[in-house]
Specification:
This is Anti-CBASS protein Acb1-like N-terminal domain-containing protein. The protein is mostly helical and about 140 residues long. About 40% of the residues lie in helices and about 10% in strands. The protein starts with 13 loop residues before the first helix and ends in a 15-residue tail after the last strand.
């Protein structure tokens, strides 16, 4: 029996949360919220004087966002965050597969322009928010 104002006394675990998400009653809130938050989406705007080059640039950015499926990824990210309590996105950058400590700065010394490959969603069961050493040394 819980002894505090909370409904559950602690973290239920990802397995139980995944099982609970099979119920449409539990799943309806995260799905509806995620769908509504990404339904209208947004518009890309660039500050300028209405130059045609800027309009062309906006079209290119919107096409790239669509190709990377950013809207669908954000919907899934929101849904997972509400279902499991956390969610992560990973960025894939060309030439930086083994360079986790390189800052995400678009410059010659950081991440070169045009090297963004993709974004992906990582479900929380595959990661941990705490430090963990799995070496056998």
């Amino acid at each position: 029996m819980p002894t505090g104002p909370q409904f559950y006394s602690g973290f239920l675990g990802y397995q139980r949360l995944a099982l609970m998400s099979q119920s449409s009653d539990y799943r309806a809130v995260p799905e509806t919220t995620a769908n509504e938050m990404t339904r209208a989406w947004g518009k890309v705007k660039i500050k300028g004087d209405g130059d045609d080059q800027l309009a062309d640039r906006i079209v290119l950015i919107e096409k790239r966002l669509k190709k990377l499926k950013v809207r669908e990824l954000m919907r899934k990210h929101i849904e997972c965050e509400m279902t499991f309590g956390r969610s992560q996105l990973a960025i894939s950058i060309k030439g930086h597969e083994n360079k986790a400590d390189v800052p995400l700065v678009i410059s010659p010394s950081g991440v070169p322009k045009g090297s963004l490959q993709s974004f992906s969603h990582i479900e929380p069961i595959w990661s941990t928010p705490s430090a963990y050493n799995a070496s056998n040394l």
